[in-house]
């Protein structure tokens, strides 16, 4: 299993590394008065404080989340899908990145246990088939 990469929030906006902002950051522009005088202003992303449910962990997690990320979470079917589908360079929140890799690890464990169970079932099926063949020669049949 590969180690969880460490991702530092960029220096451009410290706030960006403390929530699910979907790559959004503060933008700057100018407000023009009727006289033509320009004033510097900032455009911040639409941020909400929200609890999101993880199906994998069967638990609620608290996040600061932008409106665009919230739309993607809703559209893609939940927090787990959003974290798995979004690259680390866009997430940038260390807690969310750790959570993403935990989700992937749990999914891999579940998948491996399911394939192991199916192999066991296939093996049992073949043993039962052999038993049917042996007993059919003796005149005994299994009804399953």
TrEMBL record:
UniProt keyword terms in alphabetical order: Ribonucleoprotein, Ribosomal protein
One cellular component (GO) term of this entry: mitochondrial large ribosomal subunit
Signal peptide boundaries: none
Domain of life according to the entry: Eukaryota
Molecular function as annotated in GO: structural constituent of ribosome
Pfam families listed in its UniProt record: Ribosomal_L28
InterPro entries, alphabetized: Ribosomal_bL28, Ribosomal_bL28/bL31-like_sf, Ribosomal_bL28_sf
Similarity comment: Belongs to the bacterial ribosomal protein bL28 family.
Protein name per the record: Ribosomal protein L28 family protein isoform 1
Species annotation: Galdieria sulphuraria
Phylogenetic lineage: Eukaryota, Rhodophyta, Bangiophyceae, Galdieriales, Galdieriaceae
